[in-house]
Design brief:
Belongs to the IF-3 family. By secondary structure, the chain is of the alpha+beta class. Helices cover 40% and strands 22% of the residues. It is elongated and about 70 Å long.
């Protein structure tokens, strides 16, 4: 009986030890799984945020490295309020978000004594913004035209250019007129310079156009005029 009791006690002890071990493993797994669901900005960062003291005016983020390509052991994150967070390990940041939905974008290269500045961006939102910017840039390009005239332009070419100017203005385009001296061409006379300037201004006025901004440059050398038809 003592032998049976001993076996029973041993079995109970082993069972208790096994259950304790399983509970311990479950606790570790649960804690580990929680880390993956913590908001990316909060991983390993102090609650106290620092004001972002470096410029983030980079329009070409896509030219800077992302994720592992950043290469630095530590980075500093910019949160949603544009505050600069304390340095944190790059590996820790990369492990804090789902790479299928987010990515880490470097926005400032940093310095020898300062780690790179980065942002965690949403892939879908970033692509949508890029498409919107590309669309706006394309629309802006379509709405603007550019014409170049030589000060010593002959009568036939001048008539052709003024015809183009008329067409563009009537279609609602903003036209940038570049009046300049071309290399290898003769220098224009004072009368020719005056004639070209007056012809451009008269044509613009006849169409109901006006200068969008002041004239840039010096007549006879290089002048830029930006004109548009008034609504």
């Amino acid at each position: 009986m003592n032998h049976i009791r001993g076996l029973t006690s041993t079995a109970q002890a082993l069972r208790q030890t096994f259950l304790t071990s399983v509970r311990s493993q479950r606790t570790v797994i649960t804690r580990s799984s929680r880390i993956n669901h913590v908001h990316p900005i909060q991983i390993g960062l102090q609650k106290r945020s620092l004001q972002h003291s470096r410029s983030l005016a980079f329009s070409d983020y896509h030219k800077m490295p992302t994720n592992e390509a950043i290469g630095a052991p530590y980075v500093q994150l910019v949160d949603k309020d544009n505050n600069l967070q304390p340095p944190v390990r790059l590996s820790q940041v990369l492990a804090s978000f789902d790479p299928r939905e987010f990515f880490l974008q470097q926005v400032d290269a940093g310095a020898p004594d300062k780690p790179p500045v980065c942002k965690i961006l949403n892939k879908k939102e970033t692509k949508a913004k890029e498409r919107a910017r590309a669309k706006a840039a394309k629309a802006s390009k379509i709405q603007n035209k550019k014409l170049e005239l030589n000060w010593a332009i002959d009568a036939h070419d001048l008539k052709h250019r003024l015809g183009q100017l008329t067409t563009f203005l009537e279609k609602g385009y903003k036209v940038e007129l570049v009046l300049t001296k071309k290399k290898g061409k003769r220098a224009a006379t004072v009368d020719e310079i005056k004639h070209v300037m007056q012809s451009v201004m008269d044509t613009t006025k006849q169409i109901g156009g006006t200068q969008v901004k002041g004239m840039e440059g010096e007549p006879g050398k290089h002048v830029i005029l930006t004109v548009k038809k008034e609504n």
